[in-house]
Structure formats: structure tokens, C-alpha cells
Amino acid sequence: MLKATLEKWDRLTPHQRQSVDFTLPKWVITQTLVTICEENGLTMKHITELEMMHVIENPNQGTWYSFQLLDPEDDAHSVELMLFKEQFKTHLRELMRNVSIKIKKHTDEAVWIRIAWGSGFSRPNHLKPTYVVHYLQSPYVFVRNLTSKLKPLLMQSLTLSTRHQAIKDANLSGPKLMAIRDLLMKQYQQSFPTNDASPLAKENQPGPIVNEQAEARASRRRMASEAFGKGAVPQLQSAVYKLETKYRDPSNRTMTERDEPFRCVVKYSSSNILESFRHCASAGIASTPVTPLLSSILLKGRNYFVITDNAPAAASQTRQADL
Amino acid sequence: MAYSQPKCVRGCGMCFSFPSPDQKPPPSCPRPLCPRVYHSVLEEDGIISSFGKASTPFRPPLLQFLRWLRCCWLLPVFSDFQKCLAPPSAVQETGSEQIQNGRRTERKHGLESERRSSQDGVGRGTPLSGGVEKRMSKSRSYRLSLRSCVSSRLGLTPGWTTRRLNSKRKAPKSQNITNQVSPDHLALLVKHEWQLSYVSPLYHFRHTQLKSYARQLSAFIAAEKQQGLAVEVGIQDSFKVSFSGVQGLAVADDDPETVLIQVHTKPVFAQQDDPLKLVWSGWLTCCNGSPEYLHSLPKDFTCLPLFGSSGAQNLTSLVKSWFQKNFDCSFGPLEINHTSLEWLVALWTNCNTETNIQNLKMLWTLPVEPPLQVTYVVEGNDAWDLWSSLQQRSEGDGGEEAGWIGIEEVTAFMQGLKNHFYRHFRLELSAGNLSQVSTSLGSAKCNGKIKVSNSRYMITTLTLLTECALLKMPV
User: Fold this and answer.
1) In Å, what is the CA distance from B344 to each residue of A275, B79, B337, B418?
2) pTM beyond 0.90, yes or no
3) Mutate which of B345, B360, B363, B366 to test chain A, going by most A C-beta atoms within 10 A?
């Protein structure tokens, strides 16, 4: 991984690149690289460039949080790259003096921003940068490694520079950037409910053997793919539900008379939860039609839910940044 | 045939029911009426008519025998089962069955656990309806009772096929065992997560010779290290083993005292006063073991069925092989099955009034592709409210003795939690496996790892685990 990035970076001569032996322990490689960089007279600026390239190639580390911009103003659609860059840098520098900002446009229309934060008195800390990914003309922003103290600053700069009026938490987070991007921007194969469920070609049933459950199984599969997508689905790794509903059981009077909610938290985790849910629904472990709590993951593109009695279908907690 | 039983006088000729038609079976004897005769009796009484039927239905002897067994299993009084005469077909087939006994015993473990899991708890009784399934469960129980008959006739240890987890259990009061057990030992027991195994009874184990055992074990470890078996703590380190008796954990009168084994490393260049580093610790215990079983053992055997270890895996296997060589015992992994995990859920939730459990966390694994893990965390006080509401209901119905918890309450509690889950997600948790439970009092995993975080409930947890270990005894 590092080798490929070094080649792409193109600031080291081929001879220097070959002299780095990647089979040695990590600290040896680090020492070698530091000496080479000193030879070439490279500064922090170049190193941050290298880090950014590396992160763009391998974004699946840490946790990405997604946000959605709301209420676009009239000229929001005409924001293009240069304007956005200037505006963002100006706004952020107004709010915080010592920041180091690097903006780069990737081939797939994504704008990557690397921010190293300092405070009023200290220089930017390049060891803990925040990464922001934004797709221009879309309302979605993905952020990694942002502390809650600095969050209002970033949110304000983003909102102003993209000509929107508000930004909210999209309640979707995960380690794989591409997965949450695909989920939010609906880049997966969707299955729409149809009245005519049977395909044109008939299945060949061998002779007198009749599958009794064929119809039930087909309908389960259909409902599963409507709720959780067909084919390859974005690789979401976890979903969290905070339940604050009352315990209801007609045979248990004590619990029914209880006023407080029965608080519990349910977390689903798997290497690909959407595929697991799809399998659950088609196998019958999840009763079909699939409950809106589970199908909202795909349809609404979120994986953090707070369920209360008043609005049982995915009532959400929004965290709005004040302007 | 070495043994012949008078055939049924009523003339069906195929079964061995009442020798005389006037004899009524005693109420405790579960022998059913001969079905061939019953059918003809009903015909005589005009209840059913055989008009249109060619002949009375032929019931083969096997089915007859299986129906007799089914009645046996329905009776809760198992001592009567042993007192009842074994059906003659079992005895006459003993000759041929004994040859196959070896083959059957190896299936015993799986069958026993299946039967146990099917017997435990309300709503999970042996399936009594449904064609093929019915046949299968009967044939299993047929083989099991056969083994117990055989072993009781041959004078082996009395029928342990009737062993199962207690269906009633005393609710734990928090026991302050800090007076009984030394605080160092307690701190050690509470600190680690233990991997559990069961141990068969030890032969000629003397609690008075612990020091010599310690010396022998350190010599054994050193010898194995010399041979090159990987004990990779350090080239120059040597091991110091100590055996100690832990008083206070052997609660019942028959329980042998708990033994704690600790392995410290002693670096070669250490000074006199340098503290030794603990690299491995383990214990053998028997906590409230079943007195019948303990009494049934021959004289020289000590029963310490529960073994817990924490530390490097190679040291664990060395210690186990030393025990196996010196005391002729065998070790095996102790998995905590879902019934025991459910018991722990109930017992720990019950303690919420005395010690706050904070929250009840359960981990289920659903068998889909890719496997889905569901972590269900319930707020401690809410879980306790649900538990106590179920307790009140059952007390109203049955008049249970105060301080006892029955398996029905445990099952109802788990069912309540699962229903709340199902109401929201419509996902059936029973389709998966319960693999871990934890509260602030401790955590238990189905692969046999246990951690008791609060010393007050140590005895209760160890009692449950000792029971599980005793169930897995090979004899």
C-alpha cells in the first residue's frame, strides 16, 4: 500500500524508492524514509500531500460520519469547485486562525479536504487531521476524526460555502466510506414493488415433483429484496437501535400498567448487515413483510435510530448546528 | 430366550400385557393396555366399529414397547421408573444389545444432551405429536433407557441418564464470603476470566500433599521445557508452582476443598526480594456438588469436577497432562449451554435489589450468511421490573416456596424479553444461539469462559457450574 502511494507521489527518485526495504520492521522503514526526505529537502507540506494521497486510496480506516445539508439557497446549484474552495478557506480561517487546509478534487467528483487544527496560540497539529469528503451538487458530507469542540466551526464553514442554510446529522456512520456513500446516494440495485411478480420465463420443475413451498419462498425472497436491495448491497457493518417504547404484553398486567419505557439498545453487527437481513427475511427468520424499522436502513439511508412510542417508525434525533 | 413372560391372555399373542384379564394394573405402573385387545374391547362395547376394516390394526412389538416408554417418560417420579420392571423385550435383547453397547455409549453424550434440552423447561417437552418426529424421539429414549437398564442390572453406577439440571434453584442471597475466603484468593478469582473444563474424579489425591505436588509439577514443567515443548516465557526463566487450598468455597458438607494452582516465573538473575510474576493460575473446585454422586464414588476418589484456568494455553495443557498422568483423570471442555446461560441471566437479574446490575447484555448469533450478531442490552432496572412482575404472577398461581426460582420463571422471563424484541423487529431470536450474557456481576460465554466480577455471588455461580460439570461426567 505504502509502496504504491510512494510511486504515485513521485517526489522520490526511483533509486531512492528501491532503497526502501519493506520487509524490515516498521521503525527501520520510517528511519529510511526520514533520511531520504531530508536529502530531498522535503517539508511538512509535501508529507501532508503524501498522507492525503494515502488516505484517498485507502479510506476504510476510522469511522466516517455523514451529514446532510438542508435548505439550499437559490445559487446553491451553481457552486463550483474554485468558488467552493475559496469560500471554505476564507470562512474557516475567519473562525480559527491556525488551520492548515488542503483541498483536492478526486476523479469521481468527490472533493477531499484535509484540515489540521491548531488553536489561537499553537501551530496546526498534523498528527490528527480531520478529513472531509463532499460531493458538489449533492447535499452529503462525510467527516472523519472530528472532535466535538471543533465541530461547530466546520459545520458553519461548510454550510456557508455551499450556500445552504442548515446542516444536520444523517445518522449514518461506518468504517467504509464507499459503503455509506453508496447507501446515501442510492447507488445500489434497487428492487421496486410490482404487481406482477412472476417472471416471464417459467421455472422448469422436474416431472411430478412439486415444491409445495415455492410460492411462499418466492414471495419471501421478493419482499426481502424490496426491503434490502438486490444483488450487491453496500457493505454496512452495524446498525444501532435505541428503543424507548413501553413493554406491552396483555397477559402481564404489572408491566402494562408501568408508565416508564422499557429501555434497551439493540445493535446488529456483521460483515455486511444488509445481506444478513436479506438472508433472514428470505429464510423466514424475519417475518415478512419486513418491519419498517429494518427496511429504513436501506430506504432512508441511516443506521442509528431512536424509537419512541409516539412515532414508532424511526423517529430520529437530529443534531443541528446553529448558525 | 432365557426369560419368558406369560403372553397376553387376551389372545393377541404379540405383546406381554396383563397375564390375566381380571388383573387391573396398579396406578403407578405405566404399562398400557394391549392395543390389539383394547381395540377389540372397544369393538365389543360398540364404541368403534370395525365395519369395513379388514382386521384389527397390527401393532408391531417395537411400537408397543415404545408406547410403554412414552408413558414412563411422562411420569415425573423417576425413582419409580427404576423400580418398575424393565419390559421383557429389553431383557431378551440384552444379549444382542450388549455387543452394540459400545457403539451406543459413544452416542450417549449427544443423545443425553438432546434429551436434556428437550426435557428442560416448559414448552420444550419431548414432542408428543407429529409423525416422523415422534418416532425419532421415542427411539432415542428407547436406547437411553436400555442403557440404564443394562447398567443397573450389571451393577454399574446407578442410572445417571436421569440426571438433569435442577429445575428449581435457590435464589441467591448475597453472601459475604470475605470472611470465609482469604482476600488474596478472592481478588485472584474475581480478577480473571476463566476458561472452564470438567474433570473426572481424581484418584488418590490428597489435600495434605499439596507441597509435594507443587514440586512435582514444577519439575514436570521444567522437564517438558527441556524437551523443547514450547513454553516461551523466557529462555532463562524458571517456574515456581504453588498449590494451595482455598477454604470457604466448599459449601456443602461433602464437598472436597478447593485447590488453587499458581505458576510464577522466577527470572534467573532476580534478587531475593523481587516479586514473582504470576503467569498462570487455575483452580479445581466442587461447590454444592450432588451428594448422591459424591457418595456413590469409591473410597479413594476425590471429586473436584470444575476446573478453571487463566493464562497461556501451553501451560494449561501441561498442567492438565500432569494431572492426567498422576491421578488418572480426564479433562474435557465445558461449554455453557443456553439453559445454563438463561439461568445465569435470571439469577443475576434477581440480584438487582441488592447489587445494581446496571444493564443486562445478551449476545445472539443468527445463522445467516454472513452471520449476524445481535447485541440486546436491557437497562438493569427495567429488566428487574419485568422479572419481578413474572415472579408475582407465579407466586399467585402456585404458591412456591419463598426463595426458590423455577425453570418456568426463567423461561417466561426470556420469552418476555424475546417478545419485546419480536414486537419491534419481527426477528425470531430463538432461531439463533445465545452465545454470551453479561451484567455488572459477571459474564459468561457459551465456549466456557466465565468471569465473576462480584465476590458476593461467587458461590451461586460456582454451584451452577459445578452442576454443569457433574452432568458431563463420563460415568
Assistant:
1) 33, 29, 11, 16
2) no
3) B366
